[in-house]
Amino acid sequence: MPELDQPTCNMTTLSTKERILNSTERLIAENGFAELSIRKISLQAHTNLAAINYHFGNKQQLINQVLERRLNNLFEVRKKMLHDLNQGDTQLKCNLEQILHAFIAPALYMINDEHQGGRVFMKVLARAYAEQSDSLHDLLAKRYTPIIKEFADAIHLACPKLPRQTIFWRFHFIIGALTYTMGDFGASSLSKQMPETEYFNQSVEELIQFAVSALTV
Amino acid sequence: MPELDQPTCNMTTLSTKERILNSTERLIAENGFAELSIRKISLQAHTNLAAINYHFGNKQQLINQVLERRLNNLFEVRKKMLHDLNQGDTQLKCNLEQILHAFIAPALYMINDEHQGGRVFMKVLARAYAEQSDSLHDLLAKRYTPIIKEFADAIHLACPKLPRQTIFWRFHFIIGALTYTMGDFGASSLSKQMPETEYFNQSVEELIQFAVSALTV
DNA sequence: TATCAATTCAAACGGTTGTTTTAATCGTGA
DNA sequence: TCACGATTAAAACAACCGTTTGAATTGATA
Fold this sequence. Notes:
The structure is a homodimer.
Chain A lengths: L15 H16 L6 H7 L4 H8 L2 H30 L7 H17 L5 H14 L2 H25 L5 H19 L5 H5 L3 H20 L2
Helix pairs in contact in A: 1-2, 1-4, 1-6, 4-5, 4-7, 5-6, 5-7, 5-10, 7-8, 8-10
The structure holds a DNA duplex.
């Protein structure tokens, strides 16, 4: 990843609390949870060690807030896009592609939203899945369960022939593909043949088409 | 995950080196890289701190060997299964499902192979993807690149209509789904409705069918 | 049995970790 | 201007980190 300009540490306009959250987010994305320390955070946020404990209690609660801050927004966007589909008609009319778009696009477009740090966060999210410290895992599971059910219901309406269990399996696999893509792992050669924004736009399209194919037996 | 019986620390039959490798593997799987320390490793392996540096040089080289040990085997099984498909006929005859089976099944069957610690390792592998310490990431990328190309070639022969780039994209997504499944994240409700072995056997079948559907446009 | 390399061990090294304490500073309302 | 709560800062805390050292122990060979 190229050197990012650093809105993270905009000391004049951002509060200490925001700078700490941004710096934590960035450090997790760049170096992973294993190398994260509150000393590095306070250094990058241009603040003091104790400020972290003052504002967040402890390290774990800080990490949780890093996730909660953007996760709430992401999930609400997904829900809104799904509900907007059902609004025009009573139900059943919206097709599979639209449903999957409502789930996949918000996550990957967030990656494009560099100004708001979306891309950085998506890497954090991808890492948080694998980390599975009980605290993180529980947080993610709790937040994901209801929205998965909601989308699985919508898919069931769009594809009534598919057994419900098959829908859950395949939706689970699609989330895996999405998570893996968000982390930008294994992108290898593809990502180097075109500009990054174009690459991400294409990945949205490819992933949605992939998911549609996977659910169209 | 239920309390595992601990072949990890079979002090009578296993060498110190093997006990260290097994304990490291298990600790990464259970608690992640962030909480891994050589003190915990030596404690679980019933050996001394210095033994780790004596046998492996340093912590990072130990981690690398934990991955290399089983990765080599996994990749060779995949290659052999793929080559066996092409052996009977000249080429082109083997179908998509067989190819994907050759890629997916060895990984997920490894999960079932509890006696050899396969399931533990698969969690390690899933975490290693997200960790992206340069050292781990390079190791995985270097090992994965050739086998991905090999399978993409086979898929191209089986599905000549699919653009080569589409194959790479979708194969990438399938690896994501596989990785995600290996870590057993988000399995949530499904995994609790049936015995574990049955659950894993079903996941192999579901994942292969999912991948076939995804590549059959 | 004596020897010597391979292995294991206890102890210590310097450095970093998350957290807490205490004092200084800031900004706002009286 | 004063006072007071909110915030920031410096310093110290105990605990843990990866690594190194040098001596003790082992086990096979001569």
